């Protein structure tokens, strides 16, 4: 009889899985109850060190979920999840727990879920508007305790949207708050993040402010480049 370790090491590789195209993995007959930390009948989803494969793991504590260049639907669970959408118009939901998420390029919808969540923006081209179009990400459930990270983008504080500041404006017709700059970069892009509802203040880490840890660090993954499809 083969040892448990030898059996456990066998893995199938799905080379072209795409949630955006409706692909599913049916494990209903195997007795797992859902996603979690890999214990007590749950499955854990993590990414390999190269950043090009998603792996079901039964041993790791938290989930690291990486999308593709397509429009992905990425969902965490009750652990501290780190979710990176890469390109495409992604829908990301952290679920319960203190999660970190970055939509990457594309018009993304970000939902933190229960817990204290981090929303991370690596460059202006990830969430912006132009003179004629809106390409900003939408955070559906920003609440007190959540933090937006916009480090190294040239912004230093909240203000009137000029001279390196970001401004909060409420659109009562759409019931949305825009955190945005009124000065465009050399590509005509004005940094903008849209928050559902009215918000008079936000917690945001900008240039010159220090945080205890980097909000998202997924080994082998460059958040500014698309992941392999």
Characterize this entry briefly.
The protein has 229 residues and is mostly beta strands. The chain is 2% helix and 29% strand. It is built from 1 helix and 19 strands.
Describe the structure.
The protein is mainly beta. Strands 5, 7, 9, 11, 12, 13, 15, 16, 17 and 18 form a ten-stranded mixed sheet that branches. The longest helix is centred in the first third of the chain and has 5 residues. The chain is globular, with a radius of gyration of 19 Å.
* Assembly state of the chains shown: single chain
Proportion in helices: under 10%
Beta-strand content: 25-35%
Class derived from helix and strand content: mainly beta
Order of helices and strands: HEEEEEEEEEEEEEEEEEEE
Unreliably modeled segments = 1-10, 54-61
The tally of beta strands, per DSSP, is 19
What profile does the largest beta sheet have?
A: 10 strands, mixed
Question: What does the radius of gyration come to?
Answer: 19 Å
Question: Total number of helical segments?
Answer: 1
Cα separation of the termini: 38 Å
What integer is the average pLDDT?
78
Structural shape: globular
């Amino acid at each position: 009889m083969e040892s448990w370790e030898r059996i456990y090491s066998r893995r199938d590789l799905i080379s072209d899985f795409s949630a955006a195209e409706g692909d599913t993995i049916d494990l209903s007959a195997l007795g797992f109850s859902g996603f979690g930390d890999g214990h007590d009948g749950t499955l854990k989803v993590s990414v390999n060190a190269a950043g090009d494969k998603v792996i079901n793991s039964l041993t790791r504590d938290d989930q690291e979920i990486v999308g593709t260049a397509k429009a992905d639907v990425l969902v965490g669970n009750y652990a501290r999840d780190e979710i990176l959408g890469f390109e495409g118009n992604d829908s990301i939901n952290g679920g319960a727990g203190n999660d970190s998420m970055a939509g990457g390029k594309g018009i993304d919808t970000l939902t933190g879920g229960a817990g204290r969540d981090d929303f991370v923006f690596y460059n202006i081209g990830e969430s912006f508007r132009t003179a004629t179009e809106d390409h900003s990400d939408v955070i559906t459930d920003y609440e007190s305790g959540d933090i937006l990270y916009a480090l190294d983008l040239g912004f230093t504080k909240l203000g009137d949207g000029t001279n390196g500041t970001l401004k909060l404006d409420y659109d009562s017709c759409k019931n949305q708050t825009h955190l945005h700059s009124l000065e465009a970069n050399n590509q005509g892009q004005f940094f903008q993040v849209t928050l559902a509802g009215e918000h008079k203040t936000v917690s945001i880490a900008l240039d010159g402010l220090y945080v205890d840890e980097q909000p998202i660090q997924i080994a082998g993954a460059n958040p500014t480049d698309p992941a392999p499809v």
